[in-house]
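Q: What would this chain look like folded?
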Amino acid sequence: MDKDFDIIGLENGIVDLALQVDELPESGSAATLWNYLWQPGGNVDNAIAAAARQGSRCSFMGTVGNDVQGDFFRKDLIYHGIDTSHLLSKEGTTTIAVCLAEKKTQERSFLVYRGDEGSPDLEQEELDERFIAGTKYLHVGAASGKMMRAVVDMARKNEVIVSVDGASLSEDLEWTLDHCDIMIMSKQFYRQLFGEGSEDYVANMKRLSEERGIDTCIVTLGPDGCAGANRKGETFRIPAFSGFEIIDTTGAGDVFHGGFLFAHSQGWDLEKCARYASAVSFIKCTTLGGRVGIPDRRTVEQFLENGTIDLSGAEERRKHYSSVMRLE
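A: My prediction, written as structure tokens:
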């Protein structure tokens, strides 16, 4: 059966204000702001943008508020070639996240504003099963809204591959462990599942896959690389890439998901998929924000071949984002 899309993402829209500082100031003091950019964000949204940049046919399902941030979010999906036919604007406020990237520590911190009314959710009657059935993959995460379980059930009923962003363990994400095909988790999620101090990453991913019936399980470990296993018996443990300055790790895990889903759709083996996704994530981290540095397939393949990064596309996107949603 031919599918309309390769990947559909489910999430409520989020807009990021990315800020770059040397380090966070102590209470009552000040710090120099080196750079800032407005960019749409969100775990699933960044993943879908990354997959679209690799060449996947993508759509986004969810809601935004009927405000200027919601309009910006919608236009940005279109800018990245992502279908918006199932992105609904609702009365309310689009979530804003202030993302602080520290030069000194290469860490990031977040401040999140959801507005007085909170971010609007999809309702049961707004779900379109034919639309969901028309994709190869469905990608969801913690911010996918109250309809996540219903959408996942529709996807599995229609033999759609369900991918989950395991950022932090919650009741909904714990439920997905028994209802997904691909689980890619953060180190925080991993620790919540397996406890502090457990570094048997490959063995635990293999055990989780076998015990919960998940086709592919991966943990991303930031500067320590990633590890994973699948039900075919494939396993891997690969280090992180290095050699370029890390500007901002915001969205690093998100775009790993997008890169992995693209690679998985090509039928590549598990380690090749993870290595490709790691390259997408690493290249993204060389620029500010979760969106600007997402590379296209040509850039990723060039990096994997000879270790060089062509940042011309990122510079074009930086100029684009510098021209929209200015603070002035």
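The longest strand covers residues 33-41.
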